[in-house]
Amino acid sequence: MTIHATECLLRLHDQHHELEDYQSGVPRWCTGCGDNAILAAVQRLCRDEKLRPEKTMFVSGIGCSSRFPHYMKTYGFHGIHGRALPVAEGIKMARPDLDVFVNTGDGDCCSIGAAHWIHAIRYNMNMTVMLHDNQIYGLTKKQASPTSPRGLKSNTTPRGAYLEGLNPLTVTLGVQNVSFVAQAVDWIPEVLYDIMRAAYHHNGLSFVRILQRCPEWLPDMFEPFMHDPMKTKLLTHEKGLQLSANLSKVYKNQEQHDPSDIHRAREIASGHDPIPVGILYHNPEVPVYEELRHAGQQRSAGYIKTNFEAELDKFTVWPPKADSKVQPSA
Amino acid sequence: MTETMDTAVKSRPRASKAARPEQGAKPAVTLSENIVEIVSDSGEGAQRCGQTFGAIASQMGNGVWTEEIIPAEIRPPARSVAGGSGNRIRLGSGRITNGGNETDLVIAFNEQVLLGRVRTGDLKSDCTILLESMWREAKDPKIVASYIETHDQLVKAGYRVIETPMERECKTIVADAKRGKNMFALGMLCSIYSFDLQIAREQIALTFGKKDASVVQSNVKLLEAGHDWAEKNLDFKYRIPAARSAEPQIVVNGNTSLALGVLASGMEICAMYPITPATSVSHYLSSVFEKVGGIVHQAEDEIAACAFAIGASYAGKCAVTVTSGPGYSLKQEGIGLAVMGEIPLVVINVQRGGPSTGQPTKVEQGDLLTSMFGSHGDAPKVVIAPATIEDCFYSVITARKIAETFNMVVVVLSDASLGSSQQPFPRPQFSEAWLAPPIDQSEIPAGLKPYDWDATTGLARRFIPGQPGGMHTLTGLAHDRLSHVAYDADSNEAGIRARSHKLAALQRTLKTPAVFGGDKGDLLVIGWGSTKGAIEEAVGNLRAEGRRVSSLHLTFLQPMAPGIKEIMQRFKKVITIEGNWSDDPKDEIIDESNRRYSALAMLLRSRYLIDVDCWSEVRGQPIKPATIQRVILEKLKQKEQARP
Question: What is the pTM of this model?
């Protein structure tokens, strides 16, 4: 990759951006949709981290959640169903200088794109992945998703879902090279923001599952959790989240969890009730794929020419009386 | 698994003679060309022998075309008819453009792999066969019986079988004769074709140079032993006059040529998933790409490989994904996204036999229509087909350039034959103009839109992440010039029109391809891809006999260059010759109302409203020039008969 002079210029003053600088259009999500809360947290994060809009990339697949990039005034890539992760990986490999975020839903990530999800964890490229998990297909109008709980009635499971829901946290924590796993809920914005910030600062793939309400198709899904704070277990730690005094007053069900402890993280991840919220696992030492591959190298035409000619030499049959200047010495 | 000769092989009167030469010098018979094969069980080194022989022949200055004989399995059972592995080399005085017709000489390490070659019908009826004779003394009486039976039948059928004690001779030099036999065979070939043994020694040093000196030494000894044995025991020797080119030549196969093209094009990211017969493109790239700043990403699947390449292309420079039929099918949705988002992308498809898993190691030209019309909806993309090993190299450079000039998907259709065949071509002179321009990070002027389609050409400036003022969300949904999702009729139609017009804009820049032969006549043969050498050889031979036949070879399949209709109109009859399926009108159920035409014939008929006929073959092998000659003569005859 070529680094341009414009890139090398020192920025003499910090650019200040307002929230509006990251906002684009009016979100077309339903009133009360959890995606709105995620959007608000992310726009706040961009502002607070002073992300340059032109160097920030939101990549998504297909589904309600994947409309997300359209509402950010950054570069966005709203691709095809299930393939947000490999597109994002290609972008990051070509341009490690970009901040890459991925928005994907429970159908997009855990069903049609499941293969990419597993491998994205293993590649551990430096990007922030938000799994907008509302446990239902919304855009196609209420079909069971892989994370729908058993018994959930939907248009494709009118007598109730036959299978247990897939747990994205335990799956992610089971994959080699996992480096950051967190869970947030859309209805505690303060924690959602803190988690997103920690995820953004992690060098590697940050996987944030966000439980998200779908007021249209599953209006009561998370009602009990919203009404009883004891049904949410907040994970706190000096290396993880620190809660504000106000929040601690409301959410008394807390656990001191060291995010470097993967075994405990896996135990916590398998719990549904109370819902664990916080940073389950964080390991900053896992190698990052684009760094292993030395992405973003500069190369000049002369450099390519030299190496290309050296390759051709390997396959060349020289004419009988070749000029010694032309023919390389053995 | 032991099989015996087909009874179908007809007996011939001629018997095999003792091969021992008379005392004194052995005169070399001068030939203009010869086809030689070396075939063994997989892992016995026949391929290395063949490749090295091809390289020596190139050094000698002979025209060469080498083809791999590949079993479908990695370790097929030893001594099996389907398990033969090796190389087929056509040597000539002048330039050789294809694999030619039947084989003149075979070295076989056992009679079973030889039978496999006999059954393909690829050997000349009086072919000379140097057959490993150790099986006559095998411990297993079944093997002995099989060997003797096959040997006797081949002799009876008219082949000139020379029993050769390769193993026995090698054992005097190396402990593991099974692994050294290939260099012994190489020595025999050097004697038979009067090659300079010093060039062979140097080539061995080059081949085994990475290993220690003793390996080179023992291989050279084996080479010399083979040479000596042939000098003493064979009663024939050939010389194929050669002239080394005054220009440096590159000797690589089509897949390596494609990979060199990727290097030279300035592309930096190749995303792939392993698939036969395309994988060796990535093997070579993986070994060298990082040295020149590139990355080969082996993705988790074909879909991911396509998506990864799309992401990389979108964010920086055009990227490439390399695949074959089944993988190409899997990439279709991604390709549609690249079309819709106007993301430059090069997709290399090294075609194999289909449909489904089909014939992974065999050649077919079955993907032309799917390359053009694959992906749902109207998804115009550029399709080009290299016709030679040299073309493989330049086609990637051209593809990259078109992809980034027109923001389009460019499909490069190679095939298993080009991929594994070698032919020398002039060493490319590197040009900076081949390289992709640096990534544009300049500010987008106010008012410019991400899809500001030009009213005539449909072209729009590409916005690249990092460019201030260019922020927008690319989408696979229908969109307007601002890249906003747009479901309205006008926006949808405007986008489709713009993407379509880009093909027309490219078409306007193309040159009419040159006709091979006379510019008018009785019959025009049109082909595409790897059949070029064979078609032109057949046409050349027929023209030498006075037939008014010419050929036209298309590199651009979509869009097609201007002037093709005018060329066709100058001939009384036009047919395509292709390596894909077409119904034969002679089959009982087939008539003009249901006949399925070959891909290119169908395209030419629909585009130019000319009654283009076709002939095709799906036998998993390159079409032979002699076959094409026969087809052309038949078609000419049909035409004459049809005359009132």
Answer: 0.94
